[in-house]
Specification:
Layout (H helix, E strand, L loop, with lengths): L4 E4 L7 H16 L4 H10 L8 E7 L2 E9 L12 E7 L8 H15 L6 E8 L6 E8 L1
Parallel strand pairs: 4-5
Antiparallel strand pairs: 1-2, 2-3, 3-4, 5-6
Helix pairs in contact: 1-2
């Protein structure tokens, strides 16, 4: 996709509402989130540039495309695994265009620039490519 930019979420607060809606619809029930406001509060906690958690957004021509984050930890009971690349999400109309890959690369580059050489990532679930049925996975990687 042409013109894709990756920026800190704090630089684009106008995307918080749309992003919260996407993430709440996608993950709210699975993560036990009861309200959209809870997701908004969680996103606002990621509006940082100099401390974790930090969220980034992919956008083009004023349109939100997706997000990813670098967090202190993201797996309850395994707080020793830190930091985490997590919350990777690309809007359904923008998938399979390399946006998720670009978001992950941007987060990894930023982590390296901060001398963070170990990053953990876990896949709790994702959507299958041909349906909206959740596919549960339990994998972690370093």
């Amino acid at each position: 996709m042409r013109g894709v930019r990756i920026s800190y979420l704090i630089e684009h607060p106008e995307y918080v509402s749309q992003l919260a809606q996407w993430l709440f619809e996608q993950w709210g029930s699975i993560l036990g989130e009861e309200t959209l406001e809870f997701r908004i509060k969680k996103l606002k906690a990621h509006m940082n540039r100099d401390k974790l958690p930090i969220a980034w957004v992919a956008h083009a021509n004023g349109q939100l495309l997706g997000t990813a984050a670098l967090r202190v930890h993201d797996l309850e009971g395994r707080e020793d695994l830190t930091p985490w690349l997590g919350g990777v999400f690309v809007g359904s109309h923008f998938r399979r265009r390399g946006i998720g890959t670009a978001l992950c690369a941007a987060v990894e580059d930023e982590a390296r620039s901060r001398a963070i050489h170990t990053r953990h990532a876990g896949v709790v679930f994702t959507l299958s490519l041909d349906s909206t049925r959740p596919v549960c996975l339990a994998a972690t990687a370093r």
